[in-house]
């Protein structure tokens, strides 16, 4: 599947146009195009959040912070439907923030802090390929690259504190935002039950400095300075967002994609999920299915097959194109169009044609159902947080509530204080 996706990306614009079509008056900026493509990749199977008012709000906060950063123009702020808390700064001025991050944050100032950190990476050129000058081979090269990455994170934190303060927000929100995102990541780690050291474990390729040291440094930089918080209007914007969800599953011999399509896994294939990508192996064949979203990736899927023989057929009421990528006859690929996205089904092995045909015949639309959503509930009186959850948020997972609100069970909630709960 990695090879199939790589060939899709290389094929963007790969179909020859008629000589009568005039060339564009202005060539596209390669950095912006690259950033857009990477954004589509990071959106992955999740796609964008379908809340225009919220996306506009995030863009307005980002523009306010950008004006205070020294580079006010050329930014695009996008909200992904990814439930994992995170944000990314990409080449060309694209900043992504996930639904999972918005749920964890508690104020407009904290949102400004996250966007300011990613803007800082762009302003200082951290999204470019300058780090290719650092040798990557061997332990010395790896440690040097890690040192560069950690230093860039410290630089971005420092610039974020300054930009947040210049934009009129409370600079201490930078530290609160970092803590909120960290809580969300730890909560999801525990919820998945994948490891027992969620509170202290770090991925080997995590470039960020350790959280305690990072928070201490940010607190020192922020100082006692005051500023705008914007908690009420922020909570109004994120109310009703979906909690969790948007995860692919394998159930009863079928792969249920995030995009609402379901595919049968042929007998004899052992399925394995990696995020929202299905990989399944049999004795003589391999099957992979992934959903790609984003305009550039959709264009890539059309371009990928147009220069080689392909056939079109119906799959679950949707148009499917079947062919090969890059002349690789050992792999058959089907692109199942689903309006705003495309599912790529790739099969290799001697029985590839038979397997692919069976998978396409099995395509069905599924209803993912209405999962829990974020509700903002006010405390009726002064009470302990655990009592608030029992009385005002019945059915809300206590661990999720602690993560979203940053409160322990014994914390005291003041009257009329708004808190995050889950509701159907």
- Assembly state: single chain
Q: Can you give the mean pLDDT?
A: 81
Q: What share of the residues lie within helices?
A: 40-55%
Euclidean distance between termini CA atoms: 36 Å
Strand order of the largest sheet: 7-8-9-13-12-11-10
Q: How many domain regions?
A: 3
- pLDDT below 50 for ≥5 consecutive residues: which ranges? 7-25, 128-142
* Structure class: alpha+beta
Approximate shape: globular
**Amount of beta strand:** 15-25%
Could you give the count of β-strands?
18
Plain-language structure description:
The protein is an alpha+beta fold and 424 residues long. The protein folds into three domains: 46-238, no CATH class; 249-365, Protein Transport Mog1p, Chain A, CATH 3.40.1000; 373-423. It has helices at residues 2-10, 30-43, 52-69, 99-104, 108-123, 138-166, 173-192, 211-222, 231-238, 295-306, 352-361, 385-392, 398-405; strands spanning 76-80, 87-90, 94-98, 249-251, 254-256, 261-264, 270-274, 277-281, 286-293, 311-315, 318-323, 331-338, 341-348, 364-365, 373-378, 383-384, 412-413, 418-423. The protein has a seven-stranded antiparallel beta sheet with strand order 7-8-9-13-12-11-10, with helices on both faces. A four-stranded antiparallel beta sheet has the order 4-5-6-14, covered by helices on one side. Strands 1-3-2 form a three-stranded mixed beta sheet. A hairpin with a 7-residue loop joins strand 11 (318-323) and strand 12 (331-338). The chain is globular and about 65 Å long. The model is unreliable at 7-25 and 128-142 (pLDDT under 50).
């Amino acid at each position: 599947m990695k090879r199939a996706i790589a060939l899709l990306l290389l094929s963007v614009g790969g179909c020859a146009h008629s000589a009568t079509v005039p060339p564009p008056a202005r060539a596209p900026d390669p950095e912006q195009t690259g950033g857009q493509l990477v954004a589509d990749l990071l959106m992955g199977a999740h796609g964008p959040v379908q809340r225009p008012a919220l996306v506009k709000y995030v863009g307005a906060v980002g523009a306010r912070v950008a004006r205070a950063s020294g580079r006010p123009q050329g930014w695009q702020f996008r909200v992904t439907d990814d439930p994992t808390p995170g944000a990314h700064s990409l080449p060309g001025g694209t900043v992504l923030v996930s639904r999972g991050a918005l749920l964890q944050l508690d104020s407009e100032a904290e949102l400004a802090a996250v966007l300011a950190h990613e803007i800082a990476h762009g302003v200082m050129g951290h999204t470019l390929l300058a780090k290719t000058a650092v040798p990557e081979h061997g332990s010395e090269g790896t440690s040097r690259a890690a040192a560069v990455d950690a230093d860039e994170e410290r630089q971005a934190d420092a610039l974020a504190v300054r930009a947040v303060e210049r934009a009129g927000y409370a600079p201490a929100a930078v530290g609160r935002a970092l803590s909120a995102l960290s809580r969300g990541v730890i909560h999801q780690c525990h919820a998945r039950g994948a490891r027992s050291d969620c509170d202290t474990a770090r991925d080997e390729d995590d470039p960020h400095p350790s959280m305690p040291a990072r928070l201490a440094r940010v607190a020192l930089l922020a100082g006692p300075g005051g500023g705008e918080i914007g908690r009420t209007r922020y909570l109004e914007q994120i109310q009703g967002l979906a909690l969790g969800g948007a995860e692919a599953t394998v159930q009863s011999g079928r792969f249920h994609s995030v995009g609402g399509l379901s595919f049968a896994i042929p007998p004899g294939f052992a399925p394995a999920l990696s995020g929202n990508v299905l990989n399944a192996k049999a004795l003589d064949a391999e099957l992979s299915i992934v959903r790609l979203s984003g305009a550039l990736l959709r264009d890539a899927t059309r371009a990928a097959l147009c220069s080689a023989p392909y056939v079109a057929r119906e799959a679950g009421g949707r148009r499917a194109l079947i062919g090969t990528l890059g002349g690789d006859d050992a792999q058959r690929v089907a692109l199942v169009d689903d309006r705003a996205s495309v599912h790529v089904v790739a099969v290799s092995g001697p029985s590839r044609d038979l397997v692919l045909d069976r998978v396409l015949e099995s395509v069905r639309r599924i209803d993912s159902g209405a999962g829990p959503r974020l509700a903002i509930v006010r405390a009726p009186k002064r009470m302990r947080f655990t009592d608030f959850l029992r009385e005002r948020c019945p059915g809300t997972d206590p661990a999720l509530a602690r993560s979203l609100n940053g409160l322990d069970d014994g914390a005291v909630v003041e009257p009329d204080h708004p808190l995050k709960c889950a509701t159907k």
